[in-house]
Design brief:
The complex is a heterodimer. Residues 1-54 of chain A have low confidence and may be disordered. Chain A is built from 13 helices and nine strands. Chain A folds into two domains: 66-146 and 278-338, 3-Layer(aba) Sandwich (D-Maltodextrin-Binding Protein, domain 2); 148-254, Glycine betaine-binding periplasmic protein, domain 2 (D-Maltodextrin-Binding Protein, domain 2). The termini of chain A are far apart. Chain A is of the alpha/beta class. In chain A, β5, α6 (199-205) and β6 (210-214) form a beta-alpha-beta unit. By secondary structure, chain B is mainly alpha-helical. In chain B, 84% of the residues lie in helices and 0% in strands. Chain B has helices at 2-8, 12-36, 49-63, 69-106, 108-123, 127-157, 159-174, 177-188, 192-216, 220-228, 233-244, 246-266, 275-284, 288-315, 318-323, 328-348, 363-402, 405-420, 422-438, 441-471, 473-488, 492-502, 506-530, 534-542, 547-558, 560-576, 578-582, 588-598, 603-638. Classes of the chains: A alpha/beta, B mainly alpha.
Chain lengths: 344, 639
């Protein structure tokens, strides 16, 4: 008895599902060809402009071996990897990717599951352990992007309260940032727990009338800033660049006491801004020792914040897959990536 | 009816003295709170010694990890085998095989469901991810059953083993999944193997418990009869116990698969491929539509596997099989033909990737709908969040955090003693002692406040919807697929809309927990009320009771046991969302667990926080579980 009603319910919901999917499919199929034609047209056009060079394809023989690229859990890292993977495939490599949290990724150097981390945000403890002590990994040089971490407010606030971008004025505005979570203090939105951060110490040491409320994840922070800009509600919190959201909405950094060498040595007494991060590439030592075109390519790989944000924005807001976004960038910037490729 | 009357006519003098006791206790507690507020508090300290000690243990384990390498390699090898089988079948082969299995076990309907279901996975563009999930899940289930069925059979036959296993299984089931991902990456690093191990740890308790329950359910007289006919212990097991507990064992397999499926998705955090990865990518782009597609794929996979295993369980019963109409060779012939067609397609077409011609996606419409919804309602929802937080959550949290710790311990231990008896009170006070020892008092109190509010909201809504569902068959039929989906849909899918509606706050976490915990609560309330026997209701109606009176005076009191079970399940499920809640702003223990997972220096704190969540779970579980048992006993004696 129970069985038969259960079965009927499931069967009904499934039929409904199929019908809906069918509708979505038919509407999708009318939209799709036009879309792909458009993409083809632009690819052709840019290929024409490039003086007869063929449009980028991310395909190759795949017989030169496999490269394992690690993707950090943010879109900028996906952009790095998409472009590198596309070019490596063109060179004849097979590419395997793995999306991991930062610390977890380093463990991949000991299991052999990660060959390359393209965007490392300075982890002195991990560098000590994996590079210096265990010699499992090697620093393969800067990847061109400078990471900026700081305190940000949505653009509309700067228009309304121009002096809010100086930390000396933050106490004046503390009331503005009060929420149900922060009691009688202003709320400072802390970040994803996997990121480097010491905002609680900063607030205490700068004598600010704020309480750190942790967003808990990057997605939560992004959603909070999107909503704050859209609904013109006050928000101050930890954010960073490069990040695709920087291309979508205006975020303005608050000036903290400038960073000087060593001012962040003791994280309990820190009272200065976050340092600029020269992001670097870390590769597995054993993989590096094999040598070959892929190793040379990764060593030379270097691009700017604007390049990464461009590709990340295609992925997030341009409705493209990472590979499509990479192809589009590759078509438009041959001068940048040609320098990374093997000569001859 | 006698039960009801007995309950209603408790001697009034006893009732008043009880009430006086409760009021007196509450007054004493309130006075102590006002006098000592802010003293004897245990504020949080990130540098607590124990956290560093645990870090030291981690370093020691790390340097001896190679011992476990064979396990790691073996598990990875098993997944590799499943991977290869699925890959060599190709998509037509998998669809054909699934349809054939469905046909043999359940008939053409199940076959159609399996084929169409797998087809939808492909047309969502998630074929490879789904197969990755499937092969990891199959490996985890195989190992889980290899451990779980023998242990379950043994526990079913030996009470001593059963009571020794029980607390261990409790621990495994309440421990938040993210909290044991940390020690697992410590032992087995990252990748497929640790993901499968984490999954089987999550799924194995259900396999053991249900199997043991099934073995124990075989009537003692039958076993006696077998023994008196001279059967050996081995014969009793093989010829009597196992055949007679086929259905529960089938259920155990079914539940193991369902649990494994929900866990495999989460293990993408430690490097597992598959649908979890798709969800994670969608989350980092705040792309609700894309996460909906991946979530839907998981729901579909769950439905297919549920139906297939359910059908197989039925089929295992010879009586059921005999009752089937139609000659068997036809079924088998058609099944073989299906597999053959599936395997033949690769000869004429590319079977490695699913064709784009069937592509479908809900991404765009879902994104549009979510944006409209959040834009339209966020003002209302933010207001709701503020009202609940300021009027209920903040006051409760402030009382728990600022009260002297001994007052909180004394008050809750007394409640436990009063509601559930001395044994529960002892367990509760032990749990508190451990939480204090772990150095996580303040964070535990914040989390406790969240869990209490979350449970109250869940029970409030669950009771209303459950009653409606029990009284209206149509409403129930309408509700069923929604509840099925809500139970299998990963929470990651609805976190972003919840964030847009409520900002990153504790209330958002409460909302996520309520969505997760509601389905089982609604089902238990529905089952409980429907379980009240028809004759009792007829008698009540005949003596002139209105529909409302029947509900309040008969159905609700008589289904009290089911309602308490619902409360108990509600608490445990709300608690299991504490860590997920921290991803959307709940902070406290959940945040400690995530930090410990992500940052090496906080490993110790994270592990301790995971244990504190288990302790909170045991504490709340014991208070309510014992209450249910005691009430039940009381009712039985009264009846």
């Amino acid at each position: 008895m129970r069985h038969s009603t259960f079965g009927r319910g499931l069967a009904l919901s499934l039929v409904a599902l199929v019908l809906v999917a069918g509708c979505a499919q038919s509407s999708g199929s009318t939209a799709k060809p036009a879309e792909s034609e458009g993409a083809g047209a632009t690819a052709e056009a840019s290929a024409g402009a490039g003086g007869g060079a063929e449009a980028a394809t991310c395909q190759g023989s795949g017989d030169k071996g496999t490269v394992q690229l690690m993707i950090n859990q943010w879109v900028g890292a996906e952009a790095n990897v998409a472009v590198a993977a596309c070019l490596l495939k063109q060179m004849g490599y097979d590419v395997k990717t793995n999306t991991l949290a930062e610390e977890v990724a380093w463990q991949g150097f000991s299991t052999g599951e990660v060959d390359v981390i393209l965007e490392n945000w300075g982890h002195p403890d991990l560098e000590q352990k994996y590079i210096t002590d265990e010699k499992l990994a090697v620093d393969a040089g800067p990847m061109g992007v400078t990471g900026i971490i700081g305190w940000y407010v949505p653009g509309w606030m700067v228009e309304k309260y121009p002096d809010i971008t100086d930390w000396n004025n933050l106490n004046k505005y503390a009331d503005l940032f009060k929420t149900s979570e922060s009691g009688d203090k202003g709320q400072f939105l802390g970040a994803d727990p996997t990121f480097v951060q010491y905002d609680e110490a900063l607030i205490a040491n700068l004598g600010l009338d704020y309480k750190v409320v942790f967003s808990g994840s990057e997605a939560a922070s992004i959603t909070a800033f999107q909503q704050a800009e859209k609904n013109q509600t006050p928000l101050i919190g930890y954010f960073y660049d490069p990040q695709w959201l920087q291309n979508e909405i205006k975020l303005v950094q608050v000036k903290l006491p400038a960073w000087t060498e060593g001012c962040d040595a003791d994280l309990k007494k820190v009272a200065c801004d976050y340092p600029p991060y020269v992001l670097n590439k870390i590769v597995r030592a054993a993989w590096m020792d094999q040598g070959g075109d892929a190793v040379d390519f990764i060593k030379k790989f270097s691009w700017a914040n604007s390049d990464q944000n461009e590709v990340a924005d295609y992925i997030t807001n341009g409705n493209m897959t990472a590979e499509e976004a990479a192809k589009k960038w590759i078509d438009a910037h041959p001068d940048t990536w040609k320098a990374w490729m093997p000569q001859g | 009816m006698t039960t009801v009357r007995a309950r209603l006519s408790v001697p009034s003098s006893a009732a008043t003295s009880r009430r006086a006791l409760i009021v007196g206790g509450a007054v004493v507690a309130a006075v102590l709170f006002i006098v000592f507020r802010g003293q004897w508090t245990l504020p949080h300290d990130d540098d607590y010694g124990l956290f560093r000690t645990l870090n030291g243990i981690r370093d020691a384990v790390e340097s001896n990890r190679s011992v476990l390498e064979p396990i790691r390699a073996g598990v990875a090898g098993l997944v590799g085998i499943f991977d290869q089988v699925l890959a060599s079948l190709g998509w037509p082969g998998v669809i054909g095989a699934a349809a054939a299995i469905g046909l043999i076990f359940g008939g053409w309907r199940v076959a159609l469901l399996a084929a169409v279901g797998f087809g939808i996975l492909g047309s969502l563009g998630l074929w490879e991810s789904s197969m990755a999930v499937l092969s990891m899940m199959l490996a985890a289930v195989l190992i889980a059953l290899g451990i779980g069925l023998p242990l379950g059979i043994a526990a079913g036959r030996s009470q001593r083993l059963a009571s020794a296993l029980s607390p261990v299984l409790d621990f495994m089931q309440i421990m938040p999944t993210l909290a044991y991902l940390t020690p697992i990456t410590l032992l087995f690093l990252i990748g497929v193997a640790p993901s499968v191990i984490a999954t089987l740890i999550f799924a194995v308790p259900a396999a053991i418990r249900i199997t043991a329950l099934g073995i124990r359910g075989v009537p003692a007289t039958i076993i006696e009869a077998a023994r008196s006919l001279g059967a050996t212990e081995r014969q009793v097991l093989v010829k009597v116990l196992l055949p007679l507990s086929r259905r529960p064992v089938g259920l155990a397999i079914n539940q193991t698969i369902m649990l494994a499926l929900s866990m495999v998705v989460i293990t993408s955090l430690i490097g597992a491929p598959g649908l979890g990865r798709n969800l994670q990518n969608a989350l980092s782009k705040v792309d609700v539509g894309a996460s909906f597609d991946a979530g839907l794929a998981i729901v579909i996979l769950a439905i297919i596997l549920d139906r297939l295993t359910y059908a197989a369980g039925e089929w295992a019963d010879p009586r059921e099989r005999a009752a089937r109409s139609g000659p068997r060779w036809v079924t088998i012939g058609v099944a073989l033909a299906l597999v053959g067609i599936g395997l033949a397609i690769p000869l004429v077409a590319d079977a490695t990737t699913f064709p784009d011609t069937f592509a479908a996606s809900f991404r765009e419409p879902v994104n549009v709908a979510v944006e409209w919804f959040t834009d339209t309602f966020h003002a209302v929802t933010i207001g709701l969040k503020d009202v609940v937080t300021n009027l209920v959550l903040n006051p409760l949290e402030s009382v728990l955090v600022t009260a002297p710790w001994w007052l909180v311990v004394a008050a809750l231990t007394t409640v436990a003693w009063y509601v559930s008896g001395g044994r529960a009170a002892i367990i509760v006070s032990f749990c508190f002692a451990f939480i204090i020892g772990l150095g996580l008092w303040e964070h535990s109190m914040v989390t406790l406040a969240n869990v209490v509010i979350g449970t109250l909201i869940t029970l409030g809504i669950g009771l209303i919807v459950g009653i409606l569902s029990a009284r209206h068959d149509r409403f129930r039929a309408f509700l069923r697929p929604i509840l099925d989906a809500a139970q299998t849909l990963p929470a990651f899918v609805y976190l972003i809309p919840a964030l847009a509606l409520f900002n990153p706050t504790r209330f958002t976490a409460i909302v996520a927990a309520v969505i997760y915990a509601l389905p089982p609560v609604i089902r238990l309330v529905d089952v409980g009320i429907r379980g009240v026997s028809g004759t009792v209701i007829e008698a009540a109606t005949a003596s002139g009771a209105t529909g409302r009176q029947v509900l309040w005076k008969v159905q609700l009191p008589m289904s009290r046991h089911a309602l308490l079970l619902a409360a108990n399940q509600g608490i445990v499920m709300v608690l299991s969302m504490v860590v997920i809640g921290a991803l959307v702003g709940a902070g406290a223990l959940g945040y400690d667990v995530i930090t410990g997972f992500a940052q090496g220096k906080d490993f110790g704190k994270g592990l301790a926080a995971g244990i504190a969540i288990v302790l909170l779970g045991i504490l709340l579980d014991r208070i309510t579980q014992a209450a249910g048992a005691r009430r039940q006993a009381g009712m039985e004696t009264a009846g």
